[in-house]
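[agent] plan:
  1. take the single chain provided in the ticket
  2. run structure prediction with default settings
  3. attach structure tokens to the ticket
  4. add a short note for the reviewer (M.T.)
[agent] executing step 1
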Amino acid sequence: MDTAESIPDEHPIKSEKRQDLQEMLTEVGLAAEYWLPTLQEQLGVTSAQALQHLEEKDLLKLKSQAQHSWETGALEKLLNLSHSNSLSKLQESQKEQIFQSEIHQEQVNISQFSEFIKTLKEIQNDFKKVKTKTESQDTVEKAQRMATYEVSLSLKSFSEKLQQTDQPDTQLLLLFIAAGAGYHVLNNTFQYLLGFDELDCLLHEIQMAHDKYQELKNLCSYRAQAFLVLTGLTTTVGITAISEEEKSKRLSLMRHHMEQSLSKEVAHVLTKLGAHHNWENLEKDLQLLIDGDFEATVSSLQMEDEKKQLKSLSHTNKQPHVADDNKNNRTKLIENGTFLSLLQRLGLEHHYPKRLGRADFHLICKNSVYNTQPSSEQELPFYFLQKLLVLDYELRYLVSKDGGNTEDPVYPSQESEAFDPYEEIFEDSDNAINPSAPNQRCRIHPMDIQMAIYHCADDLARQYILAKLSTCQFALPLVVPNPCSSQIEFSLWCLSQIRRSWQQAGKSANGKNNYKNMQMCRVSTSIVSFIRVGNGFSASKSQIMNSLLSKRKHDVFFHRHCSGSSKDCLLMGGVVEICWFCPGNKDKNTFDKCVTFTNLHGDAKEHEQQLTFLQEVSSLIVVLMSASDSNKENRKIVHNLCQSSKPLICLLDDKEKTMTSNSSQKVRIGIKNRNEAELTEELTCTIRRLLELSNTTLSLEDCAHIARKQGFLIDEDQRDCKEAKEKAQTLNALLGEMELSKIKENLLPLQGKLWHLWCKKDKELYYLREKGNRSIEQHKSEIETDKQRIRHEQFRKAFPLNDLMRSFLEILQDHSETHNKLYFLQWLSVFLDTLTIQHLEKLREEQSSLWSLVQTEKQKAPNSNSLRHWQNELEAISKNISDSTLGTEHLLREVGQIYEALEEACSTRDDLFLSLPQIAADLMISGVPIELMDGDTSYVPLKWVAAVFDRVCEKLGDKRLFVLSILGLQSSGKSTLLNALFGLQFTVSAGRCTRGAYMQLLKVEESFKEELGFEFVLVVDTEGLRAPELSTKSQNWDNELATFVIGLGNLTLINIFGENPAEMQDILQIVVQAFLRMKQVKISPSCLFVHQNVGEVTAKDQTMEGRRWLEQRLDEMAATAAEQEQCSDVTCFSDVIKFDISTHVYYFAHLWDGNPPMAPPNPHYSHNVQELKSRILGTAKKESRGSIMKISEAKFRVQDLWRALVSENFIFSFRNTQEVMAMSKLETMYNHWTWELRSHVLDLQDKLTNQIQNGKIQTLRTSEVEAPVTKKYDAIKQDLDKYFNEDPDNETLVQWKARFESKLRVVKEALISEIKRKADELIHLKKSHLKLEEKKSAYDNDILERSRQLALTVKGKELSEEDLHKKFNQLWKEWVYDIASIRSPAIEPDIDVDSENILLEYFKKEKNIVDIVKDNSKEHFRIKHDIYIKKKKLAWRRTVETHDEESIKMTTNYIFSRFTEIINNFRRQRRDYNPSYFYEILRLIEEEVTSASTEESYTFTSRYKIDLSLYLFQRASENFKEMHREFKRANDPVNYLESKKDDFFMSFKISCQGATSIKAFVEFLWHKLIPAISTTIWNKMPSKMAGDIRATFPAFSGNRANLEKHILICLAEEENFDNYCEYLHNPKYFFRNYIEKNIRIYFSGKGGEKMKTFLKISLDDIKNVILSAIHESTAIVKDKRSTASEWLDLFCDHLENNLVFPRKDLVSIEHQEINDIQFFKEVMSEALDPAMERVEQNCLSMSVEEMVPEIEKMLSEHLCGCWKQCPFCRAVCTNTIPAHEGDHSVSFHRPQAVIGSEWCTKTFNIRTKTDQFVIDTCSSLVASDCFLLLNNGSEILYKNYREAGGDCALWSITPDSSMQPYWKWFVCHFRSNLEEKYQKKFTGRGKIPDAWAKITKQDVLDDLKKQ
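[agent] step 2 finished; step 3 output follows
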């Protein structure tokens, strides 16, 4: 203990409540006079409360100071007493303080965990508030006591509730965590007060532990219990460790509470604690249980014991003579220790036992990129596995580079030493050659590496390893002794996946070739076992076996002469290896039938159990022995073998001749000095002969029964495997009860006919055609109805779930470990294979026979009935094969169909629905291939696949993944290549193995993620192209598949098999077309060509000709494909993608080194695979981050590609969903940025306006405007850059960055231009009034001078206000008359003449214009369609359509609206009339008429423009006359002076009063200020209110598309047909009206209150500005005695940016003297508040109607975008930029009926109108074969609509069968209105589909709100 002194001061309990330390010492019997100073000196303890903080070490320190033995006990009692007292005192203090504060504590009642957490957070927040607000320590302490007490009550309440509801586990977890924070369960209180940090820590620990516990509980009960126990033992809030004594107490408490519910796994671990209480080991084992590794806990204690024993052995001197038993035990321990040492050398100690899983093999590691050699022994296992993955059988010859792993001899360097070759040098060779040999570590034996990995691998991984070793034609471990126990293991499960093909000798019963393809564990064969009896033989048993099995000398069995072999093999002794000889279809087979060979390693006498087992299972035993062996045990073994009835061959190592025994079943062969070929031949013949005599054949399953009887541990019998097998057997039993070909129909009904029919219907949606008298929409509706009907039928068939699917789902939904599910799927796959294999073989034989007959008959009689009959039979057999093919993939496919049926047919979302994709996602994450494309229908179930991707994304996070796909002809080795590259498990076999497409997920090693730039690799395997059995499919299918695969992959392997140019031509043509499509839709994949089965690939120059030929073909095809796709910028393949013929093409050797089935893989093939793997990952590293997709993006890519593929035109149909979503977010942000910039510019404009009006700015340079705008623009630009860099979609967004930067720059420049224009106009206006202002100023000066002269005459006299008025009025009229008499008469403009002259000049080219103008008397403007409108030359439409009439009316109304705006703007500026104003009206008419004509099917005539101009000129003339009259009134000298009479009187009054007129001066000043402030504040209101409206109304908070969505919602809710018509035909006008309408709604509601708030804020702001101006101006002039002029100059300068308050308006009072400046300041300041109240009243009295147009204009300008309408359905372009680049487009087109379009019929090549509406959308029509009629009467296909030119060529209309339900509802709801308006009918091809009528308004509103 370091600083105990500070503790008493910090403790919250008050001093009067403390127990005196001296009293406590006396109570326990200790002398205070001795112990008080001792406590203070030794530990710094001065109070009783400080004792509770003492630790164990402090007690020991005190005990050392004890003078008597009894004092040690008294000291312990003292500390216990202080502890209990402190608790009770603390609790009492807490309660007392609470009650003293008269706080009423309600009864705490907490029943839910969420309530408990919420309560703790509230307590923490309350305490935090107190602590933040006060600096008083007492207050903080009081709050701390309150918080501690409340936490105690909450804990107690919740704990009691958990106990009542029987949740002891959660209760214990909670209490132990609380105990770690000092909580006492018995006293229900804390030892110490809880501060904010303690509360935060406690809250965090409880939440984290509870979440983790619940998560584990859902997964596995024993894992959750282990977590609970570990948490209880270790949890402490803070850094203090828990003592062992405390751990023992806690463990006892847990045992007491959990005794009944304790799982066997946790109980097992707890029993291992033992008397030694090794808490560290216990905690390690508990952590292993939490990780789900129970088996590791079983062996961890054993391993620890072995390590301890080994350590003790190495430090203990043994007696030289010990008993034999002890000697054996010691040897065993040394051997085990050696095994552990081996594991440590290999870096595998943490993986033993069985902790290596398949996931460890499928990891993408950094070292796998480089073809290097291991640099240390610890890298050997990794390299072994990597070579195994690529099937490199040289894995057995691995040697590390480090020096510690070699045994190279060191020769002494003695050059002068004599050399004698006959000298006896071999007697003591070890010492002579290498004196240091005893100290040198031996090289690790290659088989020890293999077996060490085997022992560390779990059973699933072992199965995988052995399957790969089998492919490499290596012998496999069958019987394996456990290196750490006496247990012998038998590998049945691990060998169950070994499958071989062979050709049995002779013919089958039906005369066919006896071809076999079977699981080897089920094949009954003769077993030939080789054993060795004795040691020191010159011959190698394994080498002899190799010569029997492989004519090419392949080392099936590792032997002494193999590279790397040594005597020091640790793990092979007693291992029985197995391999099979499988005959091929050649005549010279070693054996005619499949034969099993086993090989017992080591001396047989040392492995008695293995020998006994082999004797029982073998058909023949071959013994390697010595005839001269004198060892009794050896001779006894051989003698016993001879006595057996089994055939026996004795290979005599020391004999040269063969001596046959009397019995023909017992043979002796001498092998000394024998010719190898001769010996092999003799041995082969002998084995064949003896096997013919033996009738013993067994399968591995049979052998397992025997092994089980002999006490071997069968791997298949371990619990998880056994349980999985039983579950799989249950399902298999269900299947076995039914005819094989009926299983799918009855038990997997959803993927049969219904699914095929649904796919067919779905594809029809993308190939819509008119059928008879039906429209496309009718056809589409029928298809949608059919699809829904199929889904409902699927739903009915699926539920209730049949026994098979119910059991299957229950097993996969079980919360057991993933490896249990993998066991189950593996077993199920085995049973399904067994169930179907014989039946399928029989069917294929029948198919083969019929195929031969058909081929023969085709040549003889191609039209015969027999031929047709046989072809029909072939079809039937093919169907039967398909129906009878059954695998786990079909069950998982059914799961997917159940999900899709539930998704579409069931409105509720239950747990089953949600769990189905999770099943597939879990399997996919664990490395199981998942079907991406259904192989039977060749269709992608998009909803299922998307749901699986979503669940994977949820579980792993939205990680990046690199997609690798493969493409090639059927049976070209695609799956084999992928399996070799990454150790995958795609199905491989001759013929059509892969159907559809499968995907498998691979994880990237943690240390490699950063370098690669992604976390996962997704590998996609596909069915082969050009499959003969799929010849009935669409000829375009291969192209579609290639496009899908290439579009999905970041890198695609193009796999070419063989050297057939025709086959290469096929695949290259498909590939080039697919890559060209990707280029056109802006997807940039890469490719590598893999040319397999090429004879000689050793030298690069030998493949150069092939590369040149390939490049030439690719260039030719690229040019051809570009011509077909109309892609002019492509002339060669490298124009399509980046392609380098020298690095992107790989030539592969043949897979097999010899003839299967006994040929090993070709090592060249393996090396080629490694090179390719390095290139793939190297390419992936270079891939730009933008092209590496996230998991969610991969999902969208699958959806987008597939939807585009099933459409007729891929390029035309491709729509990148991810880009659409990213663009939508970006446009919303852009909208926010532009509003921010626009608001800033409005503020700047107000400031400039004030300065110009105040006369401070006479000229304005552009730079003065640019600087502040650019500053704000730069800040926004930084936000834009940040968004593009940090947004999750930044890789997608980057392609648009330059475009949006440009758009923002354009907006900035437009705003600068606009503000500069307005400022220049204001300056110009100001200057134009300059002469007038000068005149006014002269008038002012004259009157002021006269008033001052008058004031001088009465100065000093005391006159009343009334007397002053009389004096002033006497002379006022005289002054005004004098000034008015000298003015010159004004020239009156003739506005009517100006109007007429301008019209005549403008329309001078028109006929009769003079007469038209002279006859003008237009009071109203009526639209005359026959005069004003001219139809464009459309052959089938000669009259004006109804919708055209609506459009013309809307255009005219819009011109009227704009005209009114212009006139109001002139009047607002109080301008005088100017003839140029008429030209602005003409410009408006021309602009709008031209714009409308380009959009519509008509044009306006010049007469329309003339008559409209006449009408508007007439209205304008009246307004201009009124404007002129107002201007005259305002600027007439008499009127002007009369308006300022009060000002002049005030000036006169001030002059008369002199220095006593300060109040009058102030009154005058405020009289001028109040209207200026009112005007300024009112002018600022529109921008503030516009900002609040954007925030208040969701319709205005986004972009234009968002506004349109809200408009559609509003229209639907109102159900007003006329409003719809206005929206459809003049959307721009409607949008503005909608905005204005909502502004009025805003002001009628909360807007009024909001305006008052903004008004108050603005008043406060301006009040502060004025107050500041008063104070600062006064401060400057306070020491000067002068007139008010200087003060007014300063005051106005301060206000120039904020108010329009010209200094010249104050000239009448500037002569006033200010003697008492302080008094003046006070008077000005006092008047401020009353003035502000008057301003507020002024503003509130103003009508908000004046503000509405300005706000509407702001919002309209901000939300405006492109207003171009689709030429076919009038949908408005969704682009947010008015004059944007590129095509116009819209997300959803509308049924053309909404604008009155009708069908036309064609009779004798003449098109005539019908009265039938067109209900199809543009996006449906462009996907159809419908025709579009052009202006000249010719017709083109709708899909070629751009050829029509004009607006059609500027629109991008994507084929899409989808339509918003909104417009379907609209057509149904307003059917009669549409028919009446357009005089057409919804009949015939215009008939509304029945499905449309079912759509409700609520449906469409919900659909819109989701967007």
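[agent] step 4 note for reviewer: The chain has a mean pLDDT of 79.
[agent] ticket updated
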